[in-house]
Design a protein that fits this description.
The protein is an alpha/beta fold. The chain has a domain of 193 residues: Aldolase class I (TIM Barrel, Alpha-Beta Barrel). 37% of the residues lie in helices and 14% in strands. The chain contains 12 helices and 10 strands. The strands form 2 sheets. Strands 1-2-3-6-7-8-9-10 form an 8-stranded parallel barrel, surrounded by 6 helices. Strands 4-5 form a two-stranded antiparallel sheet.
Length: 291
Amino acid sequence: MADADDIREGNDFGIGIPVPNQNFYLKGHDNAGFGIKNRMANMFNKKSGNSVMLAFDHGFLMGPTSGLERVDLNILPLAPYVDVMMGTKGMVRSTVPAECETPIALRADAGTTLLTTMNDNECMSVEEALAMNAQCMAVMLSIGCKDTEATTVKNLYRLADKANPLGMPVMGITAVGKEMARDARYFSLAARVCAENGANIVKTYYCEGFEKVVACTPVPVVIAGGKKLPELDALDLCYKAINAGAVGVDMGRNIFQSEDPAAMAQAVSGVVHDGLTPKEGLDMFNTLKEA
C-alpha cells in the first residue's frame, strides 16, 4: 500500500491541456463498449458535449419536500426542457409515463433518511435498471466519513464490476458530511476515488479551484446544484462550473423550487449548452416567466 507518511499534494494538473488522441466526445470512454457509449450519448448533448440533469431523487432521503409534493404535477412538465431526469426506482415506476422520451438516471442506492446518520446504503441490481431502460445508475460515496466510506466505496466498485459488462454507466456521487471541507483538495480526492473505482460519471460540488477537480478526474464531471439559490446565483454557478471544465449540472431545488421551474430549466440549458452568461440566462428566465 502507499506510504501515508510521504503523500505529496498534486500540483501539475495540466489544466487546459486536452486529452490527447481522444476519439469519443466524452473523456475517458474511448475504450468503453457500445452500450456504455450509447447510453452516455443519450445523456450528453452531442453538439455542446454537456448535459442538464434534473434530480428529483430527494424524496428517498427527505420525503415530500417543497417542489416534490407531487412529482406528477411538479416534475414531469419539466421533462422536455432537460437532458436527463434522475429519480428513484419507485418514483420512476409509479409516476413517469412509459412514453416519456427523456433519459432516466436511476438513483440506485438507498439507506436511512436525513433524520438519522448516513449509513451503509444497499444497491439495486443492474438487471433491474436495465429492465427499466435506465441510462445510468447513480450511487453515493461518503468519502471522509469513517463509519461509511469503506462500504460506499465497495458499493460503487462492485456495481461498476457488474454494470460495465452489461453496458450500464455508473455515476459516483460525492456526499459531503458536516465534518468535510468543501474545497478543491477534498473534491479532487472524492472525484478521483469515484473514477478510480469504476465510475463513468462523477457528480460533485463546485468550489474555488474546480479546474483541478476536473483535470485530475479522467471521466466526465457534473456538478450538484445544492441548496436553493436566487436564480442569478444558480445560473452563475452553472456558468462558472462549465467554464472550469464541468460537462453538465445535476440540479434539483434550483430548478423545481424556482418561481418558474420551466423557465429556469430552459435558462440553465441556455447557460450549459449555448454559452449564455448568467445575466443573459436571467434575461431568458424573466422573458419566459412573463410569457
